[in-house]
Amino acid sequence: MSSQALFHVTVKAVIIHEGKILLLKKVQPSADGLGVWELPGGGMEYKEGPENALIREVREETGLELASLHIAATFHVVRSNLEIVGLNYRCTPVDVAVKLSDEHETYCWVRPDELDQYVSPKIYHDILKSV
Question: Which domain holds residue 109?
Answer without folding.
Answer: 6-128
